[in-house]
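Researcher: Here's a chain I'd like modeled. Treat it as a single chain, no partners, no ligands.
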Amino acid sequence: MDDASSNETRVNPRGASTPVRDAYQLGSLGTPWGSVQEGQGIAGDWQGMVGEKKRRLVVRIAAADDGGWKATFHPVDQTMQPIPIDSVVLEGHSLKLAINAIHGTYEGTISADANSIAGTWTQEKSLPLELRRAAKESAWLAAPTPYHVQFIEVEADVKLEVVDWGGSGRPLVLLAGLGANAHTYDKFAAKLTPSYHVYGITRRGFGASSVPPSGYSADRLGDDVLGVLNALNVNRPVLVGNSIAGQELSSVGSRYPDKVAGLVYLDAAYSYAYYDSSLGDLNIELTELRRRLEELQSKFLQDTRPMIQELLETDLPRLERVLRERQKDQQATPAALLAVYAQADVHLPPAVPAIHSGRQKYTRIPVPILAIYALPPNFEDLPGGDPAERAAFEARTAITTEAQAKAFEAGVPSARVVRLPHARHEVFSSNEEDVLREMNAFIGSLP
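Model: Modeled as a single isolated chain. Structure tokens:
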């Protein structure tokens, strides 16, 4: 992925993510190469580095049921979420790939010994990219972890994909960030199964789960998680969530604390998971203000002086404060990054804005909690630009993230808050050992 647009697959530190389509269920990668002409040769992992920053990319190819090929793209230095490759065309020694979700293509020529592909990666600009067959001892991407998939109905005509990686011990349930599915944890789950029985849930609206037109409020998504737990007969698991999954953790933990043994927020304890009135949340403020204005409008002939007074003294000043903070955020954001966000916004699946508009206030979460923050966050993958812009963005994000971490510490006495310096938003990927250490210590302390 080239330096100018590499962030198109990165989740940002506020819980929003650029849209990525979900990958197929990874199974057998096939046998070693035969001849390319015989059509046996491209199954497996291919890896290479692109751009001045030498970003690592992996293309994973497998045989498709229709006799063709299916593949996923893995920008392993940025995200563990696989991105589907929409087109795999093999003609003789020529291989062509198209990845619509990130507007990327690759064209290359397979070597005579079928161990390398020399070609060009194009995403806004063209860069040379040589892919080499991944050897087991030097592979950047772990082999797929065996798992079982089932679909559980949580509401009429709404079924969720539930992944069971197996294992023994206390049950753990993994919830992915926005735009991702349960398989974003395939590699991480393998590190947990020796000590725990590990499950993953793909929320409604994404991946192989149902995509209903409604049901995206935070509490409804929390009810989906509870529905899966009930169907599996899982007793008091530890819920683990990355990014926007923090709101599902808070929804369950605040309303049904007896249903869970603990919660683990993986860079997920932001305003959608814990609301502090001094910091606010623009989505929540807009939703509440819209409701109050509609109520005011419906009482046109009634005495609405108390309602107007509250709007003037509380609601509108809080909205103004939050808007000014958002303005500061955007003023500190590099122009190149704003352009990428604008482009991504056009292609957002309907579930993404629905989830953001369905945020709710969670202020009391009476269960044991581990909250891990990427603080200060790692922004190495930001698009190139003015160094002063980058510095301002990093400084601003560190300030707002620290403010939220302090608010969470002060407002949730049951929480252990851990800061991992220069971690990526997907902390379970960038800082796997740190996260495993903290999780094992936390879970080991639970009754």
